[in-house]
Amino acid sequence: MQDFAYHRPRSIADAVSLRRSAADGSYLAGGMTLIPTLKQRLAAPSDLVDLGALGELAGVRLESGMMTIGAMTRHAVVAASQDARRAIPALAALAGQIGDAQVRNRGTIGGSVANSDPAADYPAAVIALGATIRTDRREIAADGYFRGLFETALEPGELIREIAFPVPARAAYRKFRHPASRYAVAGVFVADFGGSRVRVGVTGAGPCAFRWSALEHALSSALDPAAANGAPLDHGRFNSDLAASAEFRAQLVRVMAKRALESLSG
Amino acid sequence: MNAMIGQPVRRREDVRFITGRGRYTDDISLAGQGYAAFARSPYARARIVSIDTTGAKTTPGVVGVFTGADLTAAGIGALPCGWLVKSTDGSDMKVAPRPPLAATQVNFVGEPYAIVVGETLAAARAGVDALEADFEELEASANLASAMEGVQIHDGIERNLSFHWALGDAAAVDAAFARAKHLTTLTFANNRLIPNAIEPRACVAAYDAASDEITLYTTSQNPHLERLILAAFVGLAPEHKLRVVSPDVGGGFGSKIFVYPEETAAAWAARALNRPVKWTAERSESFLSDAHGRDHLTTAELALDDAGTFLGLRVRTRANLGAYLSTFGSSVPTYLYGTLLAGQYCTPAIHVEVDGVYTNTAPVDAYRGAGRPEATYVIERIVETAARELGVDPAELRRRNFIQPDQFPYETPVALVYDTGDYQQSLERAQKLADVAGFPARRAAAAAKGLRRGLGYSCYIEACGLAPSQLAISLGAGVGLYESGEIRVNPTGSVTVFTGSHSHGQGHETTFAQVVAGKFGIPIEQVEVVHGDTGRVEFGLGTYGSRSLAVGGSALVKSADKIIEKGRRISGHLMETAPDQVDFEDGVYKARGTNRRMTFGEVALAAYVPANFPEGLEPGLSEKTFYDPKNFTYPAGAHIAEVEVDPETGVVKVVAFTAVDDFGTVINPMIVEGQVHGGVAQGIGQALLELGAYDESGQLVTGSFMDYAMPRADDLPSFSVDTTVTPCTHNPLGAKGCGEAGAIGAPAAVMNAVTDALGVKDVAMPASPERVWRALRGA
């Protein structure tokens, strides 16, 4: 690990300003990706702006059909949140399946969504639930947010404050874990908003999370899990590695989607 | 006779291990120590054009920078391979010299070419970053399948072939095949594994200028052998000026048998700098630079007659040696592999040929089982396949061909003489435990849920306690394979045991103490077991190949017997009874036909306070033995795996695993069961999860736990474990060895179950979800 200046601001404004004035600064949320990267000396930021003291960024709130999760809310908190478990049990369950207990007690939703790891879990839910990412300067819709491998719509220094999830009628998440890392090789979140409106978010398979619109279309006429077997799915840009080729990932996406649909419950 | 034998005594060493009081190498820090970091090759094969050390030497906090040229100039020699294998044409294996630090060419990714010592680890790493090495990258031969036709790695070693070795009677096999009614052929890979002990390799080396001695604390399974090699072959220091200590070691599985570049360079640097030097491998360094295991490509053919009797077995193997021959790299795919190809069967004719091939990958050497898992995989996969092809129950086909109990001692066509065994008994016990009779119903129930269920057997045999020394040396071993065991009875009657074996997880401090305490009839708390220090233990050959109890334990039994005999003379003298009229039972010497008696402790005190002592007998009560076994021991057993396959995702779940093993006499059944559990976990890991993969350019693709899948608790079922006992006929304990059995037997059992579930002839290990899914799609 290389030396860096460490800051622990008390307000969002200070955090943003510290990050802006740093030569090559980086926000530090849970550090579940950043710290290992620093340890491997794959990144050497001049300044780390630790968001851990910004209490205003943490917490789960449920109001008028919308569940809002602060960016610094740990996965374990979401998993255990009564509001989350009542309103969107699939989302709470997803949070409870991220990494291991240590990761869930450190990692944050904001860090996950800002990082856009292709195998992260939360992005599938952000996409499927049509969430809104609220930053220090604007609101970003889920559909335009994930841009590519570790690439999002965030501008340099832009800070996620919270993520607002519309509450669906029912939802489910299924993932196929990598045998070694246990990250999602393919993860599918399905959300049924009623009135034939179903959204499907896929993670793990491509360079970043994406909507499987063809399946959504097929489901709009009938909510039949078998639709996942046949809905068009182009794996041309899917990831391919030792654990799974692009073709096999496509198979896994179909199976995870089918199983998520089969398990949909209120 | 020995009341402690067979007792499930709790592991005494575990208290310190699980309460953080173990003392591992990295826990040892010496005053003024510097920290070492290594510069490692980023290329699979490259010529070192130049190394500019100026920047490193001027990096703040750096105290020493040394390259291969420095070590060569100081007379440090290459790391030797300790087993000379000869090719079929009588020529010696071709050895590529392996300098501790590469000087002219690097031959695998991760090979060290410089050591930097800093006041801090950060300084050392910054020094490594400041090294300017100019490499000319060369084409690599990183793929075993094509390495013999690929670019030549080492000068003078054509086709990258170190040896072409063979064993058995080729003509007899040809004749058997000519009259065969059925032929089964299989071609498969035995996948490369990366050992991944919990504790990475580490060392702390110190030089004492006053005595001119080097002390090397390191993670070794055999410190005396390390000392011998570093003294006699590498030239680090004379043997009497070098002390090697391996304190608590957190797992080895073979990978810590070997003498490695890093420890050698660090010890040399400690003397060059006249200050202690410490190095602890990072996990990524372990992946790159620990010796890997397995990595064979094999074609096997089994010839059978109408009745399913095995007539002949022909095996052709290409074994990956890696870029250099590691310490015992040549013995694993030859004498530890070919000799085991008879398995548990009366196959009358066997012939095996092995090409030992260099590749631009990390050296390959012994890993839990070492040759025997590879042999078992060959036999048990082809036997199961033959049974399916013939439409015979796989257990029945095995039964027809088993060596029968009345055939022992049984000489195989591949140079071994099995002393004892009862293979049918183990198989039947395993079938009962696994409820094989109920399998069809379980298979149907799985099918109703859309899952495919399969069952597979593996009836393995292994050879442990490689021996006798004379034979091993005649076959090319550079050292004997005896073990030393010394027992010192202290004046107060407590006992200190010094063994040349080394415990790095096996529980010797408990098992060996049980053996000795039981012999003397004293409480186990009165026995201390010392190991892993050339300064305290006279000599030793260390722990590997499941040899410790059969060989090291036997040495202790012999020493204990000598002590008991001496005690008989001392007590007889004091009780005014002829020694042959003194009985020793439960820790008490009794003058036969009288009520005179002396406890073991009283005799010990008398030995050290010889007020009234037998004429001509030396005082003291301390004995040692170098025990050289007459033969190998032959643990064997029957493993049965049951799996369920999800055809949609290709996920294989091991739903049941039964192991019935014959380890001969069992000293501590709890420890034995633990050894079986660990071995089976590793065997299932090989079958389903683990793969050390290099890409075509020689980069390690699975260089971290993100990509290399170790088995975890939720990958494994609850094991069903039992033992049968046919005691070893030629050692005083009757023990055979248990450390590797699980890793030897499990892979074939699991893969036989997987192929049974899928209804296909073969799936490559590890049977990953994608491979299984593709096998089901017939693609």
Average pLDDT over all residues of chain A? 96
Number of separate helices of chain A: 11
What is the topology, as strand order, of the major beta sheet of chain B? 3-5-1-12-9-10-11
Q: How much of the polypeptide of chain B forms β-strand, as a percent range?
A: 15-25%
Output the strand order for the largest sheet of chain A. Answer: 4-5-10-6-7
What is the number of domains of chain A? 3
Q: What proportion of the residues of chain A is helical, as a percent range?
A: 25-40%
CATH class group of the largest domain in chain A: Alpha Beta
Q: Averaged pLDDT of chain B, please? A: 97
What is the level-2 CATH architecture name of the largest domain in chain B? 2-Layer Sandwich
User: Which value, in Å, is the CA radius of gyration of chain A?
Assistant: 18 Å
Q: What low-confidence regions of chain B span 5 or more consecutive residues with pLDDT below 50?
A: none
CATH superfamily of the largest domain in chain B: Aldehyde oxidase/xanthine dehydrogenase, molybdopterin binding domain
| The number of domains of chain B | 3
SSE run of chain A: EHEHEEEHHHHHHEEEEEEEEEHHH
CATH level 3 topology of the largest domain in chain B: Aldehyde Oxidoreductase, domain 4
Output the keywords.
heterodimer, A: 266 residues, alpha+beta, Uridine Diphospho-n-acetylenolpyruvylglucosamine Reductase, domain 3, Enolase-like, domain 1, five-stranded antiparallel beta sheet, four-stranded antiparallel beta sheet, 11 helices, 14 strands, 32% helix, 24% strand, globular, B: 779 residues, Aldehyde Oxidoreductase, domain 3, Aldehyde Oxidoreductase, domain 4, 3 domains, seven-stranded mixed beta sheet, 23% strand
Tell me about this structure.
The complex is a heterodimer of chains A (266) and B (779). By secondary structure, chain A is α+β, with helices and mostly antiparallel strands. Chain A has three domains: 5-50, Uridine Diphospho-n-acetylenolpyruvylglucosamine Reductase, domain 2 (2-Layer Sandwich); 59-166, Uridine Diphospho-n-acetylenolpyruvylglucosamine Reductase, domain 3 (2-Layer Sandwich); 170-262, CO dehydrogenase flavoprotein, C-terminal domain (Enolase-like, domain 1, 2-Layer Sandwich). Chain A has helices at 12-21, 34-39, 75-80, 82-87, 89-96, 101-106, 109-115, 122-128, 213-221, 227-230, 246-262; strands at 5-7, 25-28, 47-50, 60-63, 66-70, 132-135, 139-141, 146-148, 151-152, 160-166, 170-177, 184-192, 198-203, 210-211. A five-stranded antiparallel β-sheet of chain A has the order 4-5-10-6-7. Chain B has 20 helices and 28 strands. In chain B, strand 19 and strand 20 form a beta hairpin. Chain B is of the alpha+beta class and 779 residues long. In chain B, helix 10 crosses helix 11 and helix 15 (508-520) packs parallel to helix 16 (548-574). In chain B, 58% of the residues are buried. In chain B, the strands form seven sheets. Chain B has a seven-stranded mixed β-sheet with strand order 3-5-1-12-9-10-11, with helices on both faces. Chain B has a five-stranded mixed β-sheet with strand order 7-15-14-13-8, sandwiched between helices. Chain B has three domains: 15-138 and 198-251 and 256-289, Aldehyde oxidase/xanthine dehydrogenase, a/b hammerhead (Aldehyde Oxidoreductase, domain 3, Alpha-Beta Complex); 296-466 and 631-777, Aldehyde Oxidoreductase, domain 4; 482-627, Aldehyde Oxidoreductase, domain 4 (2-Layer Sandwich). The model of chain B has no long low-confidence stretch (mean pLDDT 97). Chain A binds chain B through residues 1, 176, 178-181, 183, 242-245, 248, 251-252, 255, and chain B through 122, 648-650, 689, 691, 693, 701-702, 705-710, 715, 768-770, 773-774.
